[in-house]
Amino acid sequence: MSVALEMRGISKSFPGIRALSDVDLIARAGEVHAVVGENGAGKSTLMKILAGVYQPDGGTISLDGAETRISGPIDARSRGIGMVYQELNLVPDLTVAENIMLGATPSRFGFVRRRALSEAAAVVLDAFDARIDPAAILGSLTVSQQQIVEIAKAYAQRPSIIVLDEPTSSLSEHEAQALFHIVRRMRADGIAIIYISHRLREVLELADQVTVLRDGRQIETRSADGLTAGEMIRLMVGRDLTDIFPKREVPIGDVVLEVDALTRPGAFADVSVSVRAGEIVGLAGLVGAGRTEVARAVFGLDRAQSGTVRVDGRDVFARTPAQGLAAGIAYVPEDRKRDGIVHSASIKDNVSLPVLSSLSTGGWISRTRERAMVRDQVETLGVSPPVIERAVDTLSGGNQQKVVIAKWLAAKPRVLILDEPTRGVDVGAKADIHEIIGALAAAGTAILLISSELPEVLAVSDRIYVLHEGHVSAELDRTEATEATVMHAATGEAVRS
Ligand code: ADP
Ligand code: MG
Q1: Which residues surround ligand 2, an ion (CB under 5 A)?
Q2: Ligand 1: does its nearest atom lie under 6 Å from the Cβ of 19?
């Protein structure tokens, strides 16, 4: 496939920091080239050099084989380089069509009437199979729809190279799938795609080539074929996984959570799992295998048709989350953007929400106790900045996730179910969250960990259950669980022995 972009020996320093040293990046037409690395590795700087936002201190850039200088963002755009940043650059009060055509050259669209504009936008959206009305006001769409509009806007310029800088960090797994469809579509169109993401599974799913950056240096560029998530993390951080997610040795106690033959037709059937005090049990499986559904039923968000749930030997009939909580079960949901958190509210209000009843005496909430309790949690979890009056949506993703966990920890659960607790956060924040999980286990909490990030599950779990199409397809001990054995069971190639 033809080389669309060749960046060679790129270096860039900011005052006091060398952001990039001698980095090469080659992108081919019709290929997805993923760029991965920890926060601060230099990914965005490299892309901003390509976009003309920064000039490199050294190195060359060639487009279609011809060495060029990209003088600025407009120049980059006119040379066929499309950029989609993580932050949306759209106008909420304009329609979808107006937003998509915003970046298009005025000579082509300046004089066209509204209808023609709408039609042009519809063509772009249709290409993505996106069911988004071009006439809709942008601000009325969901974040993921807006993200699709953002990509459509870049695509409408007919770029030969498109850069997606963490396009899915605010999307749920399901929404991300819609975006993958679009990326594949653009790849089929012969666009060279540069894809930046923290979600390593999605990198493995989409990418043809992978470049790993660490501390501004290019550590590796190789085909995504045969690359594992664990290997990628090792390259990203330069240490072994067991160093990044060290497993804390904790005495394992009695069975705390016992789920027996739990069945919810259409979602899962005959699911039996147990978790002991101090034990971290992974629940692995592909998207749609039923992991979240099982967790929801155990907690009382959904109703199982048959089967039993016991906590410390007592039957639990949780039909509402309040009953689940009362029985000692806490559940940190998958989509923190949706049900985990009240975004505009402060850290304090989010954390104390589920425990307000225990803080109140005769209907009065002790504000002093509330503040003390929240401060305590925020400190234990290392939420940064530790200012409990701050609105949660001003925090980074990793810190928001810590607030979500703090919220449920305040309830001092016997069983903690964590659903994708580290999704979309960088490796450093992941390690922090794992440390918290380890500390909780050490305190005797029974932990059920749902995660699509296999290397993490493998590193921290004492045991792993694998779900496949709503059934437990394997139960693996720490010693027998590997990426291969888990994936085998997750894809239904292994039956439970
Ligand atoms: P990534 O996108 O991989 O997280 P960046 O490219 O944003 O990393 O950052 C690489 C390094 O350069 C970081 O240390 C960051 O703090 C620094 N950096 C990035 N942009 C600037 C800037 N405009 N001024 C000063 N330092 C910067
Ligand atoms: Mg970045």
Answers
A1: 43-44
A2: yes
Would you call 139 exposed, middle or buried from its count of C-beta atoms within 10 A (0-12, 13-18, 19+)?
Answer: exposed
For residue 334, the CA-to-ligand 1 centroid distance in Å is 29
- Taking Cα atoms as reference points, which of 121, 171, 188, 446 lies closest to residue 287? 171
Tell which atom from ligand 1 comes closest to the C-alpha of 216.
10
Mean pLDDT of 172-185: 80
In angstroms, rounded to a whole number, what is the distance separating the alpha carbons of residues 414 and 409?
A: 10
Backbone angles phi, psi at 375, to 5 degrees: -60, -40
- 243-272 burial, b if ≥16 CB within 10 A, otherwise e? ebbebeebebeebbbbbeebebeebbbebe
Is residue 52 scored above 90 in pLDDT? yes
Q: Which domains does the chain possess?
A: 3-237 (3.40.50.300), 255-496 (3.40.50.300)
97-137 pLDDT, tens digit each = 888 887 664 445 555 556 667 777 887 788 777 788 888 99
Decide: 396 in ligand 1 pocket, CB within 6 A. no
- Residue 92 carries which DSSP code? T
In this structure, the strands spanning 255-264 and 306-311 are antiparallel
Q: What is the pLDDT of residues 431-469, one digit of tens each?
A: 878 888 888 898 899 999 998 888 888 889 999 999 999
In this predicted structure, what is the pLDDT of residue 365? 55
Spacing, Cα 46 to ligand 2 middle (Å): 9
Tally of residues, the chain: 497
* CA nearest neighbour of 434 among 313, 282, 254: 282
Q: Is the CB of 424 under 6 A from ligand 1?
A: no
Which residue's CA is minimally distant from atom 24 of ligand 1?
14
293 has pLDDT over 90: yes
Token pair recorded at residue 374: 């929240």
Among protein residues, the one whose CA lies closest to atom 5 of ligand 1: 42
Determine if ligand 1 sits within 6 Å of the CB of residue 43: yes
Q: How many angstroms does the Cα of residue 216 sit away from the middle of ligand 1?
A: 9
| Ligand 1 center to 17 CA (angstroms) | 8
Segment 232-284, tens digit of pLDDT: 888 887 776 667 777 888 889 999 999 999 999 999 999 999 999 999 999 99
Tell me the best of 14, 39, 49 to mutate to test the pocket of ligand 1, counting ligand atoms within 8 Å of each CB and taking the most.
Answer: 14
Q: Is 342 exposed, middle or buried (0-12, 13-18, 19+ CB in 10 A)?
A: middle
Q: How far is the CA of 43 from the centre of ligand 2 (A)?
A: 6
Specify the residue for token string 């992991």.
291
44 touches ligand 1 (CB under 6 Å): yes
